[in-house]
Description:
By secondary structure, the protein is α+β, with helices and mostly antiparallel strands. The chain contains three helices and five strands.
Amino acid sequence: MQFRPDTMDAAGPQVWEDMTVEVALSVMAAAGTGHLVVCDEDGLCTGLVTRARLTAVRDDYGYTDRVRLRDIADVIGPFASPLSTRDEAERAMRGRRLGALPVVDEHGNALGVLALSR
């Protein structure tokens, strides 16, 4: 079974890799969302970051207000293709302990976000 558009949420707010953790948390709070799609300077999706991840980074002993999203190693990938099966996406999320996974087209544009049901 492949994903249908109604099985994923809209991509939501998209932010740049050079945004700081503090600004990303502010954007997330203003948007009322638990995740942000992270894009490179060309607007292509490079990953997704969650409120839990940003909070953990901010609460780390070595944190400074200069930490940018690109500095957070696990922001990058994985991604789901619109042709991925539900089982493939769920395995990828569970294997990396992700609650959400960006869906990108063949050009790297974010189409939406898949989330594990709780």
